[in-house]
# Entry
Amino acid sequence: MNLLKRERALGVAHGKRVYDLPLNRGSGSGFLVLLIGLMTFLAMMALAASFALSAMTARWSSGLEDRLTVEIPATDAGGQTIKHDDVKSMTDRIATALQQHPAVANVHVLDDQEITNLVKPWLGDDLPMANLPVPGLISVQLRQSDPSTLKQLSDRITSVDARGRLDTHEEWLRDIIRFTGALQFAAAILTIVIGVTTAAAVAGAVRARMAVNRDEIEILHLMGAADSYISRQFQRHSLVLALQGAFAGMMAGMLVLATIGWICGRMEVDLVPDFALRIWQMLVLACLPVAAAGISMVTARHTVDTALKQLP
Amino acid sequence: MIRFEHVGLRYGIGPEVLSDINFSLEPGSFHFLTGPSGAGKTSLMSLMYLGRRPTRGLVTMFDQNINGASRETLGTLRQRIGVVFQDFRLLPHLSVFDNVALPMRIQSKPEKQINSDVHDLLEWVGLGSNMQQLPNTLSGGQQQRIAIARAVITRPRLLLADEPTGNLDDEIGFRLMSLFEQLNRMGTTIVIATHNVQMMSKFNHIKLVLDKGQLRMEEPVKAASRKKTGEGAA
# Structure
């Protein structure tokens, strides 16, 4: 206990070795803890955003995989409205034809109520469906989805009625996957920038601390202290500060993510995915303080070793 | 032990503060380094404690050519040198005990040995009751004794002291000089930079006299007179 008290008085974190340099004196340490905390928080947000986008893409992809939609327009080629009953009969005939194809697992003709529900968010609740030219929609679940199957299904639709249109969702899904991919790339770049900024901040703080303790460093050097003897002290000091800041940043980040998850869970919009992280994703986020500590340690050591080479 | 051949030193692009210095110190010798203020004593000492490399000439220490030695080698050689700085250069945030223990810790000595040696030495220099105090709470004379204890704690092969008794009363000063002589008898080579004529006459050793960047060696009075007598007899 006395040893620990003595070491703390000397500016030592915990353990047997003491710092020979007064590294805990001054206000620079608090600033570095705050900075590393903020950086860890930002890195956590960037990574969590990347994970959420990844989950969203996966959900959309899996939801639409092996699934296609057939639309029977409510107007003819000349723009004239087709009678609702005719559209319905064409829809039923195409559905029957598709049902007979071996690659089709299930065919579902959307009734008027389902179509109304689909357009409700855009057109409002008091939609006069009877007066609107509503197309026929068929949702098709496939056993397998490959180009030849899609060609066969398309041919079968046009053989029943040339106006029937097959939508494989590929086009807009490709665009949205490309967009989320770009966002994920941006999140990865942001994480790297945060890491580099952390390293630069640590290097700057270490250089400032070395300038403040120049006399003490010179004394140790003249007593024959190896560069590693001096740089180890900075390394350990930076490690302690980085762990303090990074854990605080991680706790704040977890609080924010938990809040976002709770809010997402209460929303009734299907477009927004659940914000539940997988185990491996949580492990990656939990490793952020370790990464911050590692970056700080390596940067501190490298900075001190480089600076000490200026001494004879 | 130490050999300087045509050594010169200048700071930056300024004039040479040391010019064509030539001398050698045998292992186990005891020298005073003296001269007027500004003569270059501190610069010469800094070359000897390997705080600088010469701008010209050859310096050999412990049979190693310093000019071409690696930084790692210089570090190892520095561990064989104890230095008492004129301004003490104690670490103000460390206790008296930890200041004196520092060279031993740098040399990775076991804590048990550090504890025992530092206690013994601090008792000997009269600071046994001040071990846990910070240096700034002590007098100039006490701080000087800490600096001396720190320099000798590892029993260095070469001890360099810059005005080591300047702030001490005569009794303590002579007592510490006796410690230096005792270390010298155990094989430590000692160089003491001083203006103290009384001390130089009492402890009769070879004098290195530095004046305007030039060095000359003066034999001890008795030895020189004996030498003269011997030469005359022959």
About this structure: The interface with chain B takes residues 10-11, 16, 18, 20, 22, 25, 215-216, 219-227, 229, 309, 311-312 of chain A (CB under 8 Å). Chain A has a mean pLDDT of 82. The longest strand of chain A covers residues 136-142.
